[in-house]
Specification:
By secondary structure, this protein is of the alpha/beta class. The protein is 31% helix and 13% strand. It is built from seven helices and seven strands.
């Protein structure tokens, strides 16, 4: 009888401990951070629903609680030739519905460790470029005030200047990795200081960039003079023309870039004409 009583007491203690363990596990699950996930195409087909970047939740103009956010900049009144990039953010979002949350080549699974959402578009004035630039800066200042990393969908390259202005308020001078066919360091275009071709000239002049840790990759095509890139080189930019990228791995180059930048806060800007025009012919 004593043995049976002891066994009963052990069972009771075990059940109590098990209950406490279940309660603790439940509490841990309750407090575990839940990350936003793209809409499951097995539940909602890719061609349906409201278009957001990678089918992530829409959190309009509010980056509260986010580690990173996508936002659109539907701008093309800073370009010198072909318009149309005002529709870029909408089109990118539509195409992004085909992206999946895991990269089998790199192992990247960003939505397992980062809280990400689409916060909509910066509010622009299509009749005034300067006011639009100011609006972009204000918008980015707002969404990054708590440390959210901004991921811009353009939009012509004018948009990068106000983004850099906003980020410099928080981080100070920033290193730049810029993939483009052009340096975008022209002083003026038809007398205008703010255009898609003057972006990084203004950024350097305003002290937004750590130019000696900045690189421009993929420069190509015809120019106006042999000295088109002299100003950028004089500021400390490293320029890598596209012919230096052909027929070789770019891994060694990017290893050098990482080593040179070190721990500096860094902005990456990718212009669509960094791709060969045979594949992306419709740029401005």
């Amino acid at each position: 009888m004593a043995f049976v009583g002891a066994l009963s007491r052990c069972r009771a203690q075990f059940n109590t401990l098990r209950t406490l363990g279940q309660a603790l596990a439940s509490a841990q699950c309750t407090h575990r951070r839940l990350f936003n996930q793209p809409v499951d195409p097995n539940i909602t087909p890719r061609f349906s629903g409201i278009a957001t970047m990678m089918r992530l939740p829409h959190q309009p103009a509010d980056a509260t609680g986010l580690d990173a956010c996508f936002f659109g900049v539907p701008l093309d009144w800073g370009t010198s030739n072909r318009s149309g990039t005002r529709f870029g953010p909408r089109q990118i979002r539509g195409e992004s519905s085909l992206l999946r949350p895991f990269n089998s080549a790199t192992g990247a699974a960003p939505f397992q460790s980062l809280q990400v959402a689409d916060v909509g578009d910066a509010p622009l004035n299509p009749y005034n470029l300067v006011k639009s630039v100011d609006a972009i800066e204000e918008f980015v200042t707002t969404i990054t005030k708590d440390g959210c990393c901004p991921l811009a969908l353009g939009g012509d390259h004018t948009l990068t200047l106000p983004v850099l202005r906003a980020l410099a308020k928080r981080h100070g001078r920033i290193a730049l990795v810029h993939v483009d066919a052009h340096s975008d360091t022209t002083d003026t275009m038809r007398g205008e200081k703010i255009t898609h071709g003057t972006t990084f000239r203004r950024a350097a002049e305003e002290g937004l960039l750590v130019t000696e840790k900045s690189i421009q990759i993929g420069l190509r095509g015809s120019g106006y003079t042999p000295g088109d890139y002299d100003w950028a080189k004089a500021q400390g930019f490293r320029l890598v023309p596209v012919d230096k990228c052909w027929h070789k791995s770019l891994v060694p180059l990017m290893d050098e870039v990482r080593q040179n930048i070190g721990n500096e806060p860094t902005y990456i800007s990718f212009d669509i004409d960094g791709l060969d025009p045979a594949f992306a012919p419709g740029t401005g």
